[in-house]
């Protein structure tokens, strides 16, 4: 009898990626998640991790553009929405500052 371990291995990679993400180690989280083969929903998580990495690198516009249309992770809707709102306000404050200086 042959066992297929991809789902178990994928779940371990996702859990490890989430641990890295929670420690703000976005690059490592992306790397771990890139190894997932067959688990549904990982594409959304990969985009979320990439968005936070862009934000961490002060690429605010790119981060917001990536995060604005994504579905929040399960159980994290409120915090995810707060972060998107904050990022949008951050972007708008830069625009206002540039208008005030110009």
Keywords:
Serine Threonine Protein Phosphatase 5, Tetratricopeptide repeat, mainly alpha, 102 residues
In short, what is this structure?
Helix content is 73%, strand content 0%.
Detailed description of the structure:
The chain is mainly alpha-helical and 102 residues long. It has one domain: Serine Threonine Protein Phosphatase 5, Tetratricopeptide repeat (Alpha Horseshoe). It has five helices and no strands. It has helices spanning 6-22, 26-34, 42-56, 60-67, 77-101. Helix 4 packs antiparallel against helix 5. The longest helix has 25 residues, at 77-101. The relative contact order is 0.10. The mean pLDDT is 86.
Question: What is the correct CATH architecture?
Answer: Alpha Horseshoe
Query: What's the count of strands?
Result: 0
Report the total helices.
5
Percentage of residues in helical conformation: over 70%
How far apart the termini lie comes to 72 Å
Q: Quickly name the level 1 CATH class.
A: Mainly Alpha
Q: Outline, from the CA principal axes? A: elongated
Low-confidence stretches: none
Judged by helices, strands and strand pairing, the structural class is mainly alpha
The total domain count is 1
CATH topology: Serine Threonine Protein Phosphatase 5, Tetratricopeptide repeat
Secondary structure layout:
Elements: H1 6-22, H2 26-34, H3 42-56, H4 60-67, H5 77-101
Helix pairs in contact: 1-2, 2-3, 3-4, 4-5
């Amino acid at each position: 009898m042959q066992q297929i371990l991809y789902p178990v291995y994928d779940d371990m990679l996702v859990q490890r990626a989430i641990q890295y993400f929670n420690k703000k180690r976005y690059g490592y989280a992306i790397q771990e998640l890139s190894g997932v083969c067959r688990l549904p929903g990982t594409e959304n998580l990969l985009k979320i991790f990439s968005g936070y990495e862009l934000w961490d690198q002060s690429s605010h516009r790119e981060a917001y553009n990536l995060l604005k249309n994504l579905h929040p992770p399960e159980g994290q809707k409120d915090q995810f929405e707060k972060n998107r709102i904050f990022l949008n306000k951050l972007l708008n404050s830069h625009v206002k500052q540039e208008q005030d200086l110009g």
